[in-house]
Amino acid sequence: MGKTLFDKVWDSHVVQSVQNGPDVLFIDRHLVHEVTSPVAFLGLKNRNIEVLYPNKTFATADHNTPTMNQHLPVEDPLSANQLEALRANTESHGIAYWGLGHDKNGIVHVIGPENGITLPGATIVCGDSHTSTHGAFGAIAFGIGTSEVEMVLASQCIMQPKAKSMRININGKLNIGVTPKDVALYIISQLTTSGATGYFVEYAGSVFEEMSMEGRMTVCNLSIEMGARGGMIAPDEKTFEYIKGREFTPKGDGWDKAMDYWKTLQTDEGATFDKELTFDAADIEPMITYGTNPGMGFGISNSIPKAGDGTSAKSFKKSLEYMSFNEGDAMIGKPIDFVFLGSCTNGRIEDFRAFASIVKGRKKADNVTAWLVPGSHRVEEAIHSEGIIDILTEAGFELREPGCSACLAMNDDKIPAGKLSVSTSNRNFEGRQGPGSRTLLASPLVAAAAAVTGKVTDPRELMEPVLA
After folding, report:
1. pTM, to two decimals
2. DSSP H helical segments within 347-436, as ranges?
3. Residues linked to residue 170 through DSSP beta bridges, in sequence order
4. Residue 317 CB burial class (10 angstroms; 0-12, 13-18, ≥19)
5. What is the CB-side half-sphere exposure of residue 283 using CA atoms within 13 A?
6. Domains in the chain, ordered, with CATH?
7. pLDDT single digits (tens) 375-419
8. Contact yes or no for 40/150 (Cβ under 8 A)
9. Is 267 helix (H, G, I), strand (E, B) or coil?
């Protein structure tokens, strides 16, 4: 019987299988940041244990970092302490650390691929749920807890039950204005936030084959939002071209040997999945959420549905009450207060190109506060070198410095209570972007349209017509 991509990568990393229990899985790459690592390092210290393979662990500062005046001392004492703890811990264990001011600094799930740390067929973990991003390269990547961070630091292994497998197929041609973010939000709206619980998802079909690597990362990033353990896309020539020549990729004969293996990382003909779903690309339009979880979303031209009966109806109504929305409301035309472009979901150069394509020749709406936050210094550099910064500046926008920013408001970038934000990040839970804040998840195109009109706007109205 043929094997799935997930089976191939998982099975090749099993060190030992526990009877009627989890597998002991070897981890190729371990990414750490300042929030989930301090207690893990403390655990090592208390047990007098060293990091087993320091060269397989990479650290960056991103969650607690300010996105303005990064050259100055961090004012928030908790953030400053966490950043100092990460610096000291990585230094004492000989781990690469890219802190504030380092040219490789940025959001952990942006800098991994940028530097060639993320490779096809690898196992990758991080104390962060959106580690699923790296599955875009044909890797098994998933988030872990603090105790598991300690386990990987100490042993380079983790104990995990093998997940079930799911394949999601989407074929056809995407409509104008539909981005990878819309594809992901559409899938989540169809499955709900628990529809893939217990599964590792492989995305297949022409829609994903035609996506850029950055688009694939956006889709895999959001896998966790439908309950999946992670998401994967089989590596292809786009994958190999993206990673070739990056700092931590194999070189010379090592590259040729790696390529021989990477080219086998496809699901075999006849392999079976525990669950398989198929959607049509033509059914997807620019998406937006209206509630307090990523599954409460729909095409932007729709109106908020009515609640059904039972417990879920109570939850639905509670969500609308928090958002100050009503059943039957149209989303288009709702006034907004903030726009956030960034995060590990949409903080890459492709996202800034898309945003700039809408705002070019227009002006930021007076009622909108916009935070445009690149995912790394390399993204920031590209924004300048490609002239995107000129488009943004002329339209009245300012560029901030790299970091997680308003995605989770663990820094100074907090949406005030009651204010409505159109955000390109990954979660719209109550208070996610700041206590009492209200969040509409959307693509960079939808965010840009809102930023220049001051209200929820279908970006297709502002896009250049495509000639047949």
Report:
1. 0.96
2. 349-359, 377-385, 388-394
3. 279
4. middle
5. 12
6. 5-164+232-265 (3.30.499.10), 290-459 (3.30.499.10)
7. 999 999 999 999 999 999 999 999 999 999 999 998 899 999 999
8. yes
9. coil
